[in-house]
Structure formats: structure tokens, C-alpha cells
């Protein structure tokens, strides 16, 4: 189910409110580029600063605007199992296609707690689930053993977004999960290396800005056209790097705002990126022929 390029959508704001008009236009750009799926209200969508009603409303809008032309994989994870279940059932009511569930952050559950958390959510909904391991933000990763247990115990847990930066994790996970369990890179800069090891796509930040280019890279890797994939990776590598020059999604929003696609607005505690970072990012985009 989860193969190809999925865009971890930003949530555009204007004057403190979700900018519905801009959000619709951004989704149209993704559809036009042939992106396989969009992922609203994940980390890139500033989910920690949306209240529950806003969170579900953004998912509803994504489903409404996508019009079944691309998958909607709703970010519904939380470090509270009760809250994650509430968001997940809300996403199911909104007719999302699938869920993205991040590892519980801050409270650092044990592997057993992690297993119980994800199993409880999976038992509460019928939608396919993509797990999301990102230890740099959560302070804990979903262990290989826990992934294997969840894949066996929960038929709807079908995939993993892996953002730990360790290609060898792909090898280790593939050895212990069913053949149809799909791994996607959670880091644009690791996509080619992960796909060489059996990953089947990416959940991308960069594709908010350059969806066609990211899709071209992923499609080349899927066909094992490594020469083309690596050539594109070299061309876009600086962009992938500098979109994280400050905390995501500050840099990508700055680049999108420069194109007039949205307001350069984030919710506190995030703020627009510093001028020095902005100049470096824009120089990198220009060097890659993308400004």
C-alpha cells in the first residue's frame, strides 16, 4: 500500500488560523506532481501546536481537497494513548486512507509500553497504519523487536517510516517482518541509501517545495536506476540538508513563502528562521536551480 513519495504536509497559517485556501492550493500542487500520498498533521504539520479540533479539521480538509486523487495518511500519533485513539478514530470518521503513528515522545515508554500503545490504537480503528520511529525528536526509537511483534500481532500495522538515520536498521527490520511490510525513509537525504536496502519510498519534507523532483528521484530508485537516482540525490543533497538548517518546518515554510504559496508563519514556540539561515537556504536553492 505504502510505496513511492509521500509528502509530510506543512500546515499553512495566516493571522494565527489555519489558512484553508493555501492548504487547498498546496494539495493541488501535490496532486499535479503525481505524489502517491500526503501526510497532514505530522511533525512537519506542526501537530503539537494544533488543538484537537484543529487537528481533526486539517485531516478533514486534506480528505476533502485530495478527492481520492492521492492517499491521505493522517498523522494521529501522541504520547498519550487515549489522545492518539481519539485522533485516530477522528481520522477514520473523516475517511482518511491510513494513519501515521509516531513513537510516544517525552515520556520514553519501555518496549513493552510501546507495544501496548500501538496495539491499543490498532485495535481501535480499521485503517492501515504506518509506524514512525524518529529518536531525534522522541528520545526513544521503536526497537526492531517491537516492530516485529506489532507486525505479527496487528494485521493493520503495515509499514514503518524510519527516521533514525541508520541504514542498517532497514536490513535488520526486513529480516524480522513479513515480506509485504513496507519501510519508507523518513529523511530525504537517506532515501536512496534506504531504497538500496529494500525501502520502498519516502515520507518527504522537501516534496512540499519540489514534489516533482523528489518523485523523480524515488521513481528512479524504485526502478533500480541507481545512476539517475544518485545523480538527482547529488543535485538535491544541499537542499535536503539546508531544509533542516533550523527546526523543521521553519526552513521549508520560508522557501514556500518566497514563492508566494503561504505566509511565513509558524506557531510558537517555533518562529520564522533567522536571516542568516534564510540567505544560506536560498543560495542553496539557487545553486540547485530551484529558486
Distance between the termini: 34 Å
Percent of residues in beta strands: 5-15%
User: How do the SSEs run, as a string of H and E?
Assistant: EEEHEHEHEHEHHEHEHEHHHH
**Helicity, as a percent range:** 40-55%
Strand order of the largest sheet: 9-8-7-6-5-4-1-10
- E-strand count: 10
Structure commentary:
With 291 residues, the chain is α/β, with parallel strands linked by helices. It has a single domain, classed as Alpha-Beta Barrel (TIM Barrel), CATH 3.20.20.70. Helix content is 46%, strand content 14%. It contains 12 helices and 10 strands. The chain has an 8-stranded parallel β-sheet. It has a two-stranded antiparallel sheet with strand order 2-3. A hairpin with a 2-residue loop joins β2 and β3. α1 packs across α2 and α9 packs antiparallel against α10. It is globular. The two termini are 34 Å apart.
Can you tag this structure with a few keywords?
single chain; TIM Barrel; 8-stranded parallel β-sheet; 291 residues; alpha/beta; two-stranded antiparallel sheet; 12 helices; 14% strand
Fold blueprint:
Layout: E1 4-8, E2 13-14, E3 17-18, H1 20-32, E4 37-39, H2 52-66, E5 71-75, H3 81-93, E6 98-102, H4 111-124, E7 129-133, H5 135-138, H6 144-153, E8 157-162, H7 167-174, E9 182-185, H8 191-196, E10 201-204, H9 211-222, H10 226-242, H11 250-258, H12 275-287
Parallel strand pairs: 1-4, 1-10, 4-5, 5-6, 6-7, 7-8, 8-9
Antiparallel strand pairs: 2-3
Summarize the structure in short.
With 291 residues, this protein is an alpha/beta fold. The protein has twelve helices and ten strands.
Amino acid at each position: 500500500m505504502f510505496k513511492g513519495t509521500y509528502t509530510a504536509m506543512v500546515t499553512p497559517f495566516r493571522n494565527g488560523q489555519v489558512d484553508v485556501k493555501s492548504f487547498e492550493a498546496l494539495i493541488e500542487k501535490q496532486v499535479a506532481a503525481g505524489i502517491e500520498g500526503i501526510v497532514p498533521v505530522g511533525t512537519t504539520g506542526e501537530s503539537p501546536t494544533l488543538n484537537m479540533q484543529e487537528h481533526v479539521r486539517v485531516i478533514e480538509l486534506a480528505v476533502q481537497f485530495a478527492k481520492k486523487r492521492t492517499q491521505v495518511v493522517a498523522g494521529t500519533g501522541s504520547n498519550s494513548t487515549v489522545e492518539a485513539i481519539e485522533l485516530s478514530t477522528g481520522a477514520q470518521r473523516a475517511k482518511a486512507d491510513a494513519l501515521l503513528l509516531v513513537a510516544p515522545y517525552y515520556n520514553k515508554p519501555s518496549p513493552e509500553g510501546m507495544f501496548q500503545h500501538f496495539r491499543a490504537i490498532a485495535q481501535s480503528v480499521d485503517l492501515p497504519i504506518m509506524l514512525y520511529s524518529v529518536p531525534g525528536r522522541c528520545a526513544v526509537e521503536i526497537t526492531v523487536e517491537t516492530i516485529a511483534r506489532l507486525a505479527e500481532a496487528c494485521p493493520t500495522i503495515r509499514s514503518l517510516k524510519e527516521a533514525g538515520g541508520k541504514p542498517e536498521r532497514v536490513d535488520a527490520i526486513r529480516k524480522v517482518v513479513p515480506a509485504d511490510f513496507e519501510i519508507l525513509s523518513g529523511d530525504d537525504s537517506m532515501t536512496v541509501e534506504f531504497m538500496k536496502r529494500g525501502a520502498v519510498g519516502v515520507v518527504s519534507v522537501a516534496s512540499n517545495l519540489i514534489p516533482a523532483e523528489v518523485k523523480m528521484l524515488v521513481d528512479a530508485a524504485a526502478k533500480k536506476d541507481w545512476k539517475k537516482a544518485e545523480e538527482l540525490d547529488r543535485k538535491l543533497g544541499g537542499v535536503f540538508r539546508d531544509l533542516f538548517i533550523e527546526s523543521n518546518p521553519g526552513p521549508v515554510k520560508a522557501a514556500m513563502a518566497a514563492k508566494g504559496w503561504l505566509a511565513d508563519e509558524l506557531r510558537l514556540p517555533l518562529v520564522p528562521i533567522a536571516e542568516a539561515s534564510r540567505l544560506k537556504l536560498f543560495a542553496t536553492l539557487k545553486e540547485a536551480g530551484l529558486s
